Amino acid sequence: MSEAAHGNRIPQAFEGDEDDQQDIWIFGYGSLVWKADFPFEEKRTGYIKGFLRRFFQNSIDHRGTQDRPGRVVTLVHSDDPESKVWGMGYRIGASEKLQVLSHLDHREKNGYDRHCVKFYPYPPCTAQLNEPQPILLYVATQDNPSFAGLHDTLDEIADQILGSAGQSGKNPEYVYKLAEAMRQLYPGERDDHLFELEQLLLKRECRPEPPTTDGDTSRSEASKEG
Fold it and tell me: Which of 120, 140, 145, 139 lies closest to 130 in space, CA to CA?
């Protein structure tokens, strides 16, 4: 199992989270950022701390096959406890909790496990909560069979992504949609691993480069949906 911000292990999900009558929060840092295929009560922009988003997980279903795996993101421990991974928090109503968790367990069956961390909503909003919240997320830890390793270069990752496709579509589109969501939701925030991989893929596919948001600290209208 990969190291994490609290000690050497990613904190496990709270006991009893499926059985009580409380709402729960789910954190999306990959495709769930732009597409939630489950019912939720509200969504909230924000981040978790102490992690890095990396394309270190093979995908043999959603963005690849057994014969030609694609690459998708997971989280790894950062040496900087203040390092942020921006994403989307979803509040799941108590009545929908079991259904949603069952759906996500099946969706993330290729090596992902549930864990609990702290979610920091941002920006402050008078109509929604602003205090840090316990939140569940799915992490593909280093001991799962589809973990691709920590040491591949971005060029090697791009080589694997190009031409890979699965039941959810072409692998490069996953990268482009995630990068675009980050620019729209969090203009001015950097995710060098994601954006540099996007640039490599765009050049190899001879696509135009997206407009840059470097230095833009304003937030787009899309970021205010939560």
Answer: 120
Residue 10 makes CB contacts below 8 A (sequence gap 6+) with 1, 2, 4, 75, 77, 115, 117, 139, 141
- Distance CA(50)–CA(75), nearest Å, equals 10
The whole-number pLDDT of residue 154 equals 97
Q: Output the six-digit token pair for 171.
A: 């692998």
In this predicted structure, which of 1-5, 42-46, 200-204 has the lowest mean pLDDT? Answer: 1-5
Spatial separation of the C-alpha atoms in residues 62 and 174, rounded to whole Å? 10
Catalytic residues: 108
Residue with tokens 């709270």: 14
> Is 0.90 topped by the overall pTM?
no
Q: What is the pLDDT of residue 88?
A: 97
Distance CA 207, CA 199 (A): 9
> Token digits for 88?
């989307």
- Ramachandran angles phi, psi of 145, nearest 5°: -60, -25
Taken in order of first residue, the domains within the chain and their CATH numbers are: 24-196 (3.10.490.10)
Structure tokens at 182: 């980050």
Give the model confidence (pLDDT) of 78-95 as tens digits: 999 999 999 999 999 999
**Cβ pair 20, 96 in contact under 8 A:** no
11 close to 20: Cβ distance less than 8 angstroms: no
Q: What is the pLDDT of residue 125?
A: 84
